[in-house]
Task: inverse folding
């Protein structure tokens, strides 16, 4: 492939989505077909060595976006490019190279680890499938990989069930690293872990990024976790990106009413302020309660039903707001901000 | 000071497992007073859920067993030796419980309205004898409750089945069922963990307002320190089957005393600011079949020294009133100042994190 040179010409863009949409057709019981748009017109770029986070609530389309970027399912429309090359028209060799260079780390690695295989056996298999280490060097490489994720060489002899949740996530990361990727798509990698273990894994991901120059697409619902890892953040709502910018700006001056509402809803551990810190349901609630959300709004802003922006009005229901770049790198899909 | 509504003394719940006896809850004591919110916080496997289930005697026995000497008193009445018939009155009567996933406690073949009115009727039958209130009255009461917990169009939704509702709406139905009998204590086990953050906030708001209105005490079981800070009056921190620290919410967050609490607070990422590194608590949560000897946190504690081979008791009072800590550092506080702690230090030598203000 064009490799490094191509991506440098590309401004360091490794993985790129342009106008990505994914619709699912579900035929109802009586034959009436319904179309659900899981992802709509998503464009994003992942640069070398950076972490882009995709955040939003369940069902917002963040995991589907990840699957499209990994080529695990085809987009209904739009393109995915890796180092400037369109995934849809890649040669078989380029596609194999892509599958090696872009790796996935799951929420629960246990589901993806073979229970009958030792950790060493599993890593050895990955190395041999991709012909990455000669047989006699495999043991050394396995020890090296385990060391990278903070596990001792003895872990190679053990089976997945012998490890705790945090250790299994380390094994999942080691397996992703075995093929020397340059992009890791991490889908809720710490959300199943306890706080004390979560910190260990987040630190590990940060260390590996510095050491190996990895890029991450980090998908998470926990905004505090995202704050800790992300350079840039894209917020998704009902399949669309509604706001994107560098992390510090997004957290300190969120523009889109949905981003504001998300950030306001996070319970903060410090400082506990006045008594009864959770306000009564009522005027100062960030959003009307769920259920008040109008289903399937075909025109206008999809967030309008939940929006509390003081300037919202009729105009918001006329057309879908565009995702506009307000200042360099700062994108918002709202006509009132 | 309000009198204790429920008083737990030396509660021990053990389980028989293939790995040996799991000492899931291993000698905990605390109380909840009328109307207050107490948070029981800890990581998975620390025994917080088993504690809740033990209070209501909802654990399968065997493999579980409550050890002799365990005591749970509800307004002075001992529950550990109460008859099953009395326990059935207590459950859903004086004490209600809600869980993380309401789908598992709602019956999929009955409508939500039927389930709420059934809860109301069953409770009334127990307290006043059968036939006091007919089906129509219970239906009206159920619709009132659905409205009260924020279900839109309650008359219409009365006929909905659980699967037709979102997770947040199902949790509202559970809250309606749990509070419609006006319990003195609500045990809420991770009630918002499965929900999105904006829905979580709505549910917490709802619980807070109903609690004030009805004067219900809440024992909130959670792993989320943010939620603890927002809703609790007092906090019990559990580690390895024991309570390691008890304090008012202000004292706990301002100056955590137990090293485990200190580590937990520092390990939580900060929404305001990206830190260079998060503080880590090294190692893993131990298994209930093999708690470490001496202080159970010793293998992960950055301050541990020879004395920690002896078991510290919880009787050690912290600096704030009403607080207690299970840690020898209370005798030798200078060790904390000279110790390395959990996290990276800022250039001026002060530890970064939440412990200092």
Result:
């Amino acid at each position: 492939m064009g490799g490094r040179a191509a991506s440098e010409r590309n401004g360091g863009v490794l993985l790129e989505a342009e106008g990505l949409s994914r619709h699912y057709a579900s035929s109802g019981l009586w034959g009436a077909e319904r179309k659900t748009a899981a992802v709509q017109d998503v464009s994003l770029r992942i640069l070398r060595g950076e972490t882009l986070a995709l955040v939003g609530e369940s069902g917002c389309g963040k995991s589907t976006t990840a699957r499209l970027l990994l080529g695990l399912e085809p987009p209904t429309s739009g393109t995915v490019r890796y180092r400037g090359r369109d995934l849809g028209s890649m040669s078989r060799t380029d596609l194999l190279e892509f599958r090696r260079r872009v790796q996935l780390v799951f929420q629960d690695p246990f589901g993806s680890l073979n229970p009958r295989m030792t950790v060493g056996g599993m890593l050895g298999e990955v190395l041999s499938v991709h012909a990455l280490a000669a047989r006699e060097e495999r043991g050394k490489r396995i020890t090296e990989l385990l060391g990278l994720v903070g596990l001792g060489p003895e872990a190679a002899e053990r089976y997945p069930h012998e490890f705790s949740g945090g250790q299994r996530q380390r094994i999942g990361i080691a397996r992703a690293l075995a093929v020397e990727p340059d992009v890791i798509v991490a889908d809720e990698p710490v959300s199943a872990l306890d706080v004390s273990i979560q910190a260990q894994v987040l630190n590990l991901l940060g260390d590996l990024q510095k050491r190996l120059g990895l890029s991450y697409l980090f998908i998470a619902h926990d905004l505090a976790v995202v704050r800790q890892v992300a350079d840039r953040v894209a917020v998704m709502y009902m399949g669309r990106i509604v706001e994107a910018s560098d992390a510090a700006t997004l957290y300190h001056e969120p523009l889109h009413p949905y981003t504001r509402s998300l950030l306001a809803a996070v319970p903060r551990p410090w400082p506990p302020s006045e008594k009864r810190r959770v306000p009564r349901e009522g005027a100062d609630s960030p959003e009307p309660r769920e259920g008040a959300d109008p289903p399937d709004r075909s025109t206008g802003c999809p967030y309008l039903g939940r929006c509390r922006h003081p300037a919202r009005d009729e105009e918001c229901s006329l057309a879908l707001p565009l995702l506009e770049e307000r200042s360099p790198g700062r994108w918002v899909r709202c006509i009132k901000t | 000071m309000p009198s204790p509504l429920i008083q737990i003394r030396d509660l021990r719940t053990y389980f028989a497992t293939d790995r040996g006896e799991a000492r899931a809850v291993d000698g905990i004591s605390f109380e909840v007073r009328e109307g207050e919110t107490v948070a029981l916080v800890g990581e998975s496997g620390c025994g917080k859920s088993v504690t809740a289930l033990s209070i209501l005697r909802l654990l399968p026995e065997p493999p579980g067993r409550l050890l002799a000497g365990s005591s749970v008193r509800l307004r002075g009445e001992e529950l550990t030796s109460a008859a099953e018939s009395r326990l059935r009155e207590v459950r859903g009567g004086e004490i209600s419980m809600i869980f993380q996933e309401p789908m598992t406690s709602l019956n999929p073949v009955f409508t939500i309205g039927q389930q709420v009115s059934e809860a109301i009727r069953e409770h009334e039958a127990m307290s006043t004898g059968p036939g006091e209130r007919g089906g129509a009255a219970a239906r009206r009461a159920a619709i009132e409750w659905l409205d009260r917990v924020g279900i839109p169009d309650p008359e219409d939704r009365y006929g909905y089945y659980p699967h037709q509702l979102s997770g947040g709406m199902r949790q509202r139905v559970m809250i309606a069922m749990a509070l419609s009998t006006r319990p003195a204590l609500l045990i809420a086990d991770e009630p918002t963990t499965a929900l999105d953050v904006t829905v979580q906030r709505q549910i917490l708001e709802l619980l807070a307002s109903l609690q004030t209105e009805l004067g219900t005490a809440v024992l909130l079981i959670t792993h989320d320190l943010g939620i603890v800070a927002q809703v609790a009056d007092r906090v019990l921190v559990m580690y390895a089957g024991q309570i390691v620290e008890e304090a008012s919410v202000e004292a706990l967050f301002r100056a955590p005393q137990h090293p485990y609490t200190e580590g937990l607070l520092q390990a939580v990422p900060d929404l305001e600011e990206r830190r260079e590194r998060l503080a880590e608590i090294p190692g893993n949560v131990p298994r209930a079949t093999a708690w470490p000897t001496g202080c159970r946190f010793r293998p992960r504690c950055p301050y541990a020294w020879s004395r920690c081979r002896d078991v510290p008791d919880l009787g050690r009072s912290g600096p704030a009133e009403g607080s207690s800590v299970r840690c020898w550092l209370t005798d030798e506080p200078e060790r904390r100042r000279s110790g390395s702690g959990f996290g990276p230090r800022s250039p001026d030598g002060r530890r970064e994190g939440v412990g200092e203000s």
About this structure: The longest helix of chain B spans residues 197-214. The radius of gyration of chain B is 22 Å. Chain B has twelve helices and 13 strands. The CA atoms of residues 115 and 177 of chain B lie 8 Å apart.
